[in-house]
């Protein structure tokens, strides 16, 4: 490795630090943009235009939402940086753990991990857990 | 290699082709800072800290990958093919560099197109498309695995013709540097310049995930290749590009960005039940699956037509083959 290469790498490394710092300084709130139901609906409509949402569970605090279609498909929407990311699954493909009003989903996708959403009540969470599991409503 | 070449009457060594990308790094940094400031002042374009970090980390890793063996591998491949060259003593002159640049740009078009159409090459190239942002830092979001997955094979015909490996790498560097500035939302349309050259507008279309814009504008420097081969799509003022990939990543971890598609391939191969499935998972279009349960870009376009009731997605010539998702 020559001296020039090392200098190039050092400049690059310092450049990264400066640029990330400046991005933080110049756009301090870029990643903190509010997650909204409208934004989730808009993103889902763009990513999955044939997904006809029948019911929604939106958790603004955790920046996550779940939609279910009449056909039984599940759409997960969550915030990543200042963007939203969606995944469409079949009911039953997701493992859902419920603790009170909290739902934690194990998504079989290594690029979309750690999905959690908070329902308004324990009973609503229970209802959603059943739908996500792909079972008929109790 | 190491032998001298004739350059307009005098002899030079191959070392006189500079590493133009290394020289451009300070300019990249300066222009990104300038773009950030202009974005902030005008409200056009945006940066987000984690996304910016991820993009720059990928660029840094790309340079490291070249240093730890990727660059040597590429050079060795070019040098090996160069032994069998058709033109024994290619003159080293401005006009041969120009011809080499144009030929390399054509080779780049086909590399880039196939990188979108075949999952093996897409697994590396997807990195560059994995940001939902489109700014100058996105230009630096580059693959770590491209050289090791033989993406350089598209340039080998140039060495076979007789262009020295150093010249091919040099013009490839120019092409890469040219493509930096087109990753911006700050520059709108560019009039007659757009007829010949790749521009921010053309490349915004390439990075868009809107069904109308998928599979378009693979050009490096000259947009003429897309117009020749029927993959050109103009940006429509009425449809703002939305950037990223069809299944955007829910992570900014550079390791996951670099390897996520390779992990996906490995998982698919582990579950493959036939040679056909192995071939499809490796070299089929991104999104290919044996049962059609996943979406290729051709399927996404078809769905878009169905949902929107439009007969044709692209504004130019329609694509016909199953093509990539991003």
Mean pLDDT of chain A equals 89
- Rounded to an integer, what's the Rg of chain B over CA atoms? 20 Å
Helices and strands of chain A, in order, run as HHEEEEEEEH
Question: How would you write the strand order of the largest sheet of chain B?
Answer: 1-2
Terminal residue distance of chain A:
67 Å
- The helix-strand sequence of chain B is EEHHHHHHHHHHHHH
How would you describe the overall organization of this protein?
The complex is a heterodimer of chains A (138) and B (326). Chain A is of the alpha+beta class and 138 residues long. Chain A has helices at residues 3-26, 37-47, 122-133; strands spanning 53-59, 64-69, 73-80, 83-90, 95-99, 102-106, 115-118. In chain A, the strands form two sheets. A four-stranded antiparallel β-sheet of chain A has the order 1-2-3-4, sandwiched between helices. In chain A, strands 5-6-7 form a three-stranded antiparallel β-sheet, covered by helices on one side. Chain A is elongated and about 65 Å long. The mean pLDDT of chain A is 89. Chain B has one domain (12-326). Chain B has helices at 20-42, 49-82, 94-117, 119-129, 136-139, 156-161, 165-180, 193-196, 200-207, 224-229, 254-270, 275-283, 297-308; strands spanning 5-7, 10-12. In chain B, strands 1-2 form a two-stranded antiparallel ribbon. The longest helix of chain B is centred in the first third of the chain and has 34 residues, at 49-82. Chain B is globular and about 60 Å long. The two termini of chain B are 39 Å apart.
What's the short version?
The complex is a heterodimer of chains A (138) and B (326). With 138 residues, chain A is an alpha+beta fold.
Annotate the secondary structure layout.
The complex is a heterodimer of chains A (138) and B (326).
Chain A lengths: L2 H24 L10 H11 L5 E7 L4 E6 L3 E8 L2 E8 L4 E5 L2 E5 L8 E4 L3 H12 L5
Chain B lengths: L4 E3 L2 E3 L7 H23 L6 H34 L11 H24 L1 H11 L6 H4 L16 H6 L3 H16 L12 H4 L3 H8 L16 H6 L24 H17 L4 H9 L13 H12 L18
Antiparallel strand pairs in B: 1-2
Helix pairs in contact in B: 1-7, 3-4, 3-7, 4-11
């Amino acid at each position: 490795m020559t001296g020039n290469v090392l200098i190039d790498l050092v400049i690059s490394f310092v450049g990264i630090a400066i640029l990330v710092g400046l991005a933080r300084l110049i756009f301090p709130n870029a990643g903190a943009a509010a997650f909204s139901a409208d934004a989730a609906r808009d993103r889902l409509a763009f990513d999955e235009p044939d997904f006809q949402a029948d019911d929604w569970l939106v958790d603004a605090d955790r920046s996550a939402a779940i939609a279910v279609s009449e056909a039984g498909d599940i759409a997960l929407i969550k915030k990543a940086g200042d963007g939203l990311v969606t995944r469409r699954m079949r009911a039953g493909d997701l493992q859902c753990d419920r603790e009170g009003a909290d739902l934690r989903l194990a998504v079989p996708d290594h690029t979309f991990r750690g999905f959690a959403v908070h329902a308004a009540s324990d009973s609503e969470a229970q209802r959603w857990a059943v739908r996500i599991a792909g079972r008929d409503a109790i | 290699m190491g032998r001298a070449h004739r350059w307009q009457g005098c002899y030079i060594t191959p070392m006189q082709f500079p590493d133009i990308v290394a020289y451009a790094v300070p300019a990249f940094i300066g222009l990104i800072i300038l773009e950030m400031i202009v974005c902030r002042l005008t409200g056009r374009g945006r940066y987000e800290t984690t996304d910016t970090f991820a993009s720059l980390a990928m660029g840094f890793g790309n340079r490291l990958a070249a240093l730890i063996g990727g660059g040597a591998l590429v050079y060795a491949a070019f040098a090996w093919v160069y032994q069998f060259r058709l033109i024994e003593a290619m003159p080293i002159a401005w006009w041969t560099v120009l011809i080499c640049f144009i030929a390399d740009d054509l080779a780049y078009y086909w590399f880039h197109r196939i990188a979108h159409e075949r999952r093996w090459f897409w697994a590396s190239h997807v990195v560059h498309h994995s940001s939902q942002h489109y700014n100058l830092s996105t230009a630096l979001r580059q693959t770590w695995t491209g050289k090791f997955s033989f993406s350089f094979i598209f340039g080998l015909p140039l060495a076979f013709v007789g262009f020295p490996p150093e010249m091919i790498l040099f013009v490839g560097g120019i092409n890469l540097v040219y493509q930096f500035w087109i990753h911006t939302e700050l520059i709108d349309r560019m009039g007659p310049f757009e007829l010949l050259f790749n521009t921010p507008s053309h490349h915004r279309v390439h990075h868009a995930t809107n069904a109308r814009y998928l599979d378009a504008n693979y050009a490096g420097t000259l947009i003429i290749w897309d117009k020749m081969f029927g993959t050109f799509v103009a940006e429509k003022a009425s449809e703002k590009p939305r950037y990223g990939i069809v299944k955007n990543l829910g992570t900014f971890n550079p390791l996951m960005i670099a390897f996520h598609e390779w992990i996906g391939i490995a998982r698919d191969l582990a579950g493959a039940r036939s040679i056909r499935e192995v071939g499809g998972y490796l070299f089929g279009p991104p999104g290919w699956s044996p049962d059609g349960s996943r979406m290729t870009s051709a399927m996404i376009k078809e769905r878009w037509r169905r949902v929107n009731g439009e007969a044709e997605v692209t504004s130019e010539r329609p694509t016909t083959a199953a093509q990539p998702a991003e």
